[in-house]
UniProtKB/TrEMBL annotation:
Keyword Manganese among record annotations: yes
Assigned EC number: 3.1.3.16
Protein name (database record): Protein phosphatase
Residue span(s) of domain PPM-type phosphatase: 1-225
Source organism per UniProt: Quercus rubra (Northern red oak)
Similarity annotation: Belongs to the PP2C family.
């Protein structure tokens, strides 16, 4: 999206700002629905404001200008001269794949099980100063970056994404098709009532019984480094 407009899908929102080599995703926290709040509005407004501020302190300014009720995780990634800069709040995140193997995976932030860090205007929400800022140097041509919301990371193991990339890049890299394939498998896993998933494993570690995927909105963006 050359203009960098934010797009929404359910609770999730994203933008692709080609001119600034910057992409971002946000996952509106669904718990606000019980109060009659549009759970995707905050995420979409946040991403729209980040696009406006992307040349400055993007997340901080985007947060300050977002007045909608609700809260959201966020992950924003910028590429330049074979290095990557990312800022991440909560359980959205990104991975870097080289020769179909994951060589870097961002950390997630949670206060507890199924309670990710989240930006918002409520007293209980987190602020941009809580974000993890990451610099990854030494990116190589053909490296693939996958950015996703919690709906992806809760429902797919890294090895599953590696397998899709391995099979999907035999005849060259089509990042749009790659992102779609990954998202569809994440959706399938989210509705499977008998699947081992990252969310199920996290539930088990928290002392809860959960033998299935996590039904959630899913946002996936894929990109690759060119020479």
């Amino acid at each position: 999206d050359k203009a960098g407009n934010a797009q929404s899908q359910g609770d999730d929102a994203h933008f692709v700002f080609a001119e600034k080599n910057t992409i971002g995703v946000a996952d509106g926290v669904g718990g606000w629905a019980r109060y009659g709040v549009d759970t995707g509005k905050y995420a979409h407004q946040l991403m729209s404001n980040v696009v406006t501020a992307v040349q400055r302190q993007a997340l901080e300014e985007g947060f300050l200008n977002t007045k909608a009720i609700g809260s959201s995780t966020a992950c924003i990634v910028t590429f330049k001269d074979y290095y990557l800069r990312a800022i991440n709040v909560g359980n959205s995140g990104f991975m870097i794949f080289r020769n179909s193997k994951c060589v870097y995976k961002s950390l997630i932030q949670q206060h507890g099980f199924n309670y990710p860090y989240q930006l918002g205007n409520s007293m209980t929400c987190d602020k941009p100063c809580s974000a993890i800022v990451t610099m990854v140097e030494g990116l190589l041509p053909r490296d693939i970056i996958v950015l996703g919301t919690g709906g992806l990371l809760d429902n797919m193991f890294t090895a599953e994404i590696e397998d899709i990339i391995s099979k999907g890049t035999l005849e060259g890299v089509n990042t749009e098709k790659l992102a779609s394939t990954i998202a569809h498998l994440a959706l399938f896993n989210s509705m499977d009532e008998n699947v081992d998933s990252p969310f199920a494993q996290a539930a088990w570690l928290a002392g809860l019984k959960h033998n299935e995927g996590k039904r959630d909105d899913i946002m996936v963006i894929a990109g690759h480094v060119i020479a």
